Amino acid sequence: MKTNNILKALAFALLITTACNKSEIANDENAEKKGFALPVTVNATRGGDDATKATYNESTRKLEFSAGDKLFVSGSASGAGKFAGALDYVPATGKFSGTIYTQNDYDGTADALFSAPGSVRAILLPNGYDSYNFLSISNNNTPAVAYDDVVSASTANAFVASETAKKTGVEQLSSEQTYTYSSGFALSPQNAVLNFTISGLEAGEKAVTLITKYSGMDFDQTMSGSVTPNASGVATFAIGVPNNLVIKNVANNLTVGSSKFTLPGGTALATGKIYNITRGTGATVNLSTKNTAYTAQNGETLTGTLASKVQISIADGATVILNGVNINGSGTWTTGNYAGITCEGDATIILSGTNTVKGFYEDYPGIYVPENKTVTIQGSGSLNASSNGSGAGIGGGIGFNCGNITITGGNITATGGNGRPGIGGGTEACGNITITGGTITATGGNAAAGIGGSNTGSCGDITITSGVTRVTATKGNNISPNSIGAGAFGTCGTVTFGTQQMYNGTAWSPSPMVAGSYGGLNLAIITTTNTDDTWTLTPVTP
Questions:
Q1: Are 134 and 93 in contact (CB under 8 A)?
Q2: Which residue among 29, 114, 275, 535 is least packed, with the fewest CB closer than 10 Å?
Q3: When comparing pLDDT for 479 and 331, which is higher?
Q4: Any idea which of 193-207, 366-380, 491-505 has the lowest mean pLDDT?
Q5: How far is CA 352 from the centre of its chain?
Q6: 291: phi > 0 → left, psi -120 to 50 → alpha, else beta; which?
Q7: pTM strictly above 0.70
C-alpha cells in the first residue's frame, strides 16, 4: 500500500507484572544480540469494546490475540540508554513474555524503565506480520545490537489479498501503539480497516487503487496494491486507512483491475473499526422483459434476447457481464436510432457464454464507445458484434467521434458496415485501440481496415501485444490499403506488434509487409478469394 502515513495501532491496555534478572551479554563476542537483558512479562487486557487486536474474527468483526503475536517495546531512558525488545504472546497464560535489551547496565525494574523521563513506544506486531512484510523488526546500525532494534513499516507491502477472511490482511493492517506509559501500556487505535469481498471478477492478478484525501484538505492520497481473485472470481482483501484520511467523494474511487466502483466518500472512518464491504455480481437482468430503454448499472449481468426495439445502455463507470445476450438490432429513424449497446462513458464488459450484439439504426455501431472514454472488453465468453448498415462492429458510426477500445480477453468477432472497420472509428476520429488478450476476428467494410480506421476517418495508436491468442484482421477490399491501420482516405497513429513499431503514422516498416516474426508476434498474410488480404497475428511462443 503506497501511502505516506505509516499505519498505526488499535487500543488495548497492557500491564507489566514482572521485571527482573538482567544479564550482561554486551561483551560476549559469540552472542547474536548485544545489550543488557531484562526479562519482562506483560499482562494484556483490552482497552475497550472498540479496541482491536491481532487475528481477525469474522463473526465479531474484531481482532483477538493469537499465538505468534508480539509486543515490541522500544525507547530510551536516563541510565539505561536505548532499549528495545519483542515480547511473545503466550496463549496459555494470556501474557506477553520476552526480553528487553538496554544499551547500558540497568539495575531498575521494567516499570521504572518505561515510566522514566525519556521516550517509550509499544506497538503490537500481529500474527504473521513478518511474513506479510508490512510490520517488521529491523536495526538502525548493526543486527548484533539488540537495543537498537526498531519497528519498520513497509507501506508498499501493506496490501494483502487472500481467499479466506483471517488472511485478508485485516490483522496486518491493524497495528496498535502508544508513546506513553502509566502502570502499563494503553494502546489506542489510529486507523480504520476496510475489509472487501468483491465478486464477478475475471481471473488473474488485478491492480487495485483507492482514492483518499486528507481530511479538510484537497490533497489526494492514492492507495494502491494488487489482488488475485480465486477460481470463482472472488477477491478478498483489506485496506488500512489512517485517521487523517477519508475516502474521496468522487466517482470510481475504487478500481480492481478494469472494474470500477464508487464507495461513499467524505465521511471520516472511525479509528479502531473494521468495515466489511461486500460487492456481489449484482442483479441479473433478462432483456426479454424490457420494453422501454434500460441502462445497466455497475455489477449487473445482462442475459436473454431483447424482444423490443429499445435502447440498451451501460452506465458511466460500470462493469457489466454479458451472459447469453442476443441483441439483433434493426430500426429506422423513428424506431431504433441507436447502437446495439450504448456505453455512456467508461465501461467494462465481461463476456460469459455466447453473445450477439447488432446495431439498430444503420448509422450506429454494434457497441458504441463514446468520445474521450475507454471501453474494455474482457472475459472468457464470446461476442459477435456488427453494424446494421454503416457503423463499426465495435467503436464509432457516422457523424460522431469514438473513444478508446481495449480488449483483454474473449472470443470476439467484429464486423464493420459499409466503409467502417470491424473494430475502430466511423466517419470521424477514433481513439487508441489496444488488444492484449483473446481471440479476435475483425472484418472491415468497403475501403475500411479490419482494425483501425474507416474509409474517411482517423484513429489513434493501435497496439497488439504478444498476450493475445490470435488476432485476424481483414480489410474491406483493395481500395483499403491496410487490414490493420488507416482506411482508404483516413489516417491513423502508430501501429505496434508486440514490442516492435510497424507503422509510424506515415509509413510501414518493412514495406510492403511480409509474413514473418515481428516483436514477439507471428504475422501471416493471407490472400482471400475476393483479392482482399487478411493479417493473422499469433504469439511467436503461444
A1: no
A2: 29
A3: 479
A4: 193-207
A5: 21
A6: alpha
A7: no
